[in-house]
Amino acid sequence: MSARTLTAVAVLLIGLSLALPALATGYVVYIGNLLLVFVVLSLGLHIVIGEAGQFSLAHAAFYGIGIYTAALSAKVLGLPFWLALPAGGLLAALCGLAIGVLSLRMRDIYLALSTFAFGEAMQWVFLNWTPVTGGPNGLAIPPAEVFGHPILTDKAAFPLVAGVTLVIVALVAGLHASGLGRAFRAVRESEVAAAAVGIDVRRTKLLAFTLSAFLAGAAGGLFTTFSTFIHPDSLGFQTTILVLTMIVVGGVGSVTGALGGAVVFGLVSELLRQVPSYQEMIYGGILILVMMYAPRGVFTLVGRR
Length: 305
Description:
The protein has 305 residues and is mainly alpha-helical. The chain has helices at 3-23, 26-51, 59-76, 81-103, 108-128, 130-133, 154-177, 179-189, 191-196, 201-226, 237-250, 255-271, 279-293, 298-304; strands at residues 139-140, 145-146, 149-150, 229-230. The chain has 14 helices and 4 strands.
């Protein structure tokens, strides 16, 4: 992502933070908050798949860990938002590190299956650990507190969610241009060549899994600022596929593609709630068209033109 694009994103988010809560309805602001959460989720998956080339299907699990940790930190321990959000991100990062250690010897389909198994295991935990997660009854999320003031509406949460998202976008853009980002891409292209030029492949993979999981957990923490309820059904494999579709449609390996895919496909997924019987068919059709006519992603294609 260029400095000009990052500046445009910053101006857009700041403008929306000032205008949207004042001009839009509560539902529209809720959708705006949800799209920003999708942006952070997509950037997390972008790091492990787009940058490092490691296929992971456990993103929804890390997202759920972030939600439950942040919600329970506020509900049980009384932690404010500024502590609850990083707590969710750090616990998710620890789980991502553990998965990275266990999966280092796996590649391709075997890596995908191992991370898929972790995601399904966490879905079972969310659904059956009733004393902690509420199980099939779900969990009520208390209002997030910032400097002692509770956030009670979507409109009050939007500037906070937009500000945190902007910081994360800037950090991921900086990571892409850094030496670590170049190491990620070297491992993605060829682990043998990366090792030959002195890159610690094992450490690089672990960092990719850990950072990706941290951002997913942080997205979960952001979700708790404007949502009052979470149910395990919304943290299943379908959520991982939705986020994966976002970065594929936007452009794998592109920060701009992850941003654009999250916004566009997030809106599409919300519109398709009106026709639940046709969701899978339409998702499949979109993916087929993208793979046929824009295999590098829609936003990458627009950038080239």
